[in-house]
Amino acid sequence: MMQWMDINLIFARLCGMVIRRKKIDRSVDILASGRKIVDLPAGWEFIIDCQNHGPIKFDFNRYRDHGREDITEQLRNTIWSMRHSLQNYTLKSYETVGIRRFWKFLDYLAAEGEPITHFKQVNRKLIDQFLNWLDLQTATSGINKGEPFSAPSKLAIFIAIKSIFIYCQKQNPESVNPDC
Asked: How many Å apart are CA 81 and CA 64, to the nearest integer?
């Protein structure tokens, strides 16, 4: 009988050792800004994987020239944050339709001697200038090559860039010009 109790004691000790093991810490270090959790992208290039459309690559390196890294960083972080609420195709169209056209406008301003390098410089007057500049632009490819942008095309460009700016303003109000 004694042997049986010794075996039970050994078994109980072994089971007790398993229970007393240190738990694995699976917490993730995240940056916190006040009470907000800051969700930063992996880098200037990243892939957003969508269950409906698969992975789509975003590359913000092309926008980092002419001292516009501040604006590029804000737009990159905004696109990254919007991935929770929008499909990746929508985000890609925001980048290709909205940001790329806005960047061409910023290039135009830089050539005219009015460089825009910080997000705080984007205000209502600049947006109005952007819309006037869009009126003068022509399609560079497709059936309508050489013709002015149609009203629906200009509207799509404006909606894309406006959506990004509004989201950025909601997420990080201190980085946006209040006149925007």
From this structure: 19
- Tokens encoding 13: 């000790």
Tens-place pLDDT, residues 64-103? 888 899 899 989 988 888 888 888 888 999 998 999 999 9
> Is 53:88 a contact under the CB 8 Å cutoff?
yes
Sign of CA dihedral 100, 101, 103, 108: positive
Model-level pTM? 0.72
DSSP calls for the chain: -HHHHHHHHHHHHHHHHHHTSPPP------EEETTEEE---SSSEEEEEETTTEEEEEE-GGG--TT-HHHHHHHHHHHHHHTTTS-HHHHHHIIIIIIHHHHHHHHHHHHTT----SGGG--HHHHHHHHHHHHH-B--SSTTTTSBPPHHHHHHHHHHHHHHHHHHHHH-GGGS-TT-
